[in-house]
Fold:
Amino acid sequence: MKTAKPRLAVAIFLATIFSLAAHAETTDAPAANENPPAEKSNDSEKPSKKSMSQEEEMEISDFMMNYYKEPNLKKFDEMFRKILTVSAAHKGSSQPAIIFISEVFRANPEKIADWEKVAETLPSKEKTLAKIAKNFATEIELGLDDMGPDMLWGAFFATGNNKFPAKVAAIAATISPKNVIDMTAAASAWSLASIAIDQKHTVALEAAKTYLETASPEERAAIAERLSEKNQQILLGEVLKKEEKETPPKTEK
Structure:
């Protein structure tokens, strides 16, 4: 069975994302979707002096994934340095973190200069991530088609805008050639199940359901192939693809 080369590397978001290995390798994607290179300097590859505990990483994840529900700039001031540090340390998590930060920057342009001063005190990797986030906030406006599922979730968690999970649903419903596994579509479907359903992000769930209500029968069948029967029922209102159950081997009497 062939595996389709996705446009984007997929790594879905901090705590969800930290536990998720990248689902696909990066291909020749647009520059905006590539992992940003660190500035060349003697300390660019050095890890932070103090590694974060799992509890600290979970705190950062919880803050980011729920920020849109009640944006708290005072708390963001406290977490900004940590978000950059943990994102620089975890391969694959920089994309959603950059987009998350850029959306907070975009909504609060009067505070960008203060956050830049904080970033200037950090190692070059973290500094670079902050610079890229600022560029996305002030100079480069990404369209939905320029973003992979990881970046779309980063934007959603910062804004609560339902267009982002709707786009994740569209990617998850991508129609693939027969006998080809589309890893980006599969990861998108996984992220919808994990974030919208399991972690009860209702705004995301309703956005995905609304998109899928008007999707073509072929798209609905495509996403059904990537969901459990339970999640098909939740997202599609019906089960289109029965799960294959393993038949136990017969034993001779």
Remarks:
- Residues 15 and 59 are 9 Å apart (CA to CA).
- The two ends are 37 Å apart (CA to CA).
- The longest strand covers residues 2-4.
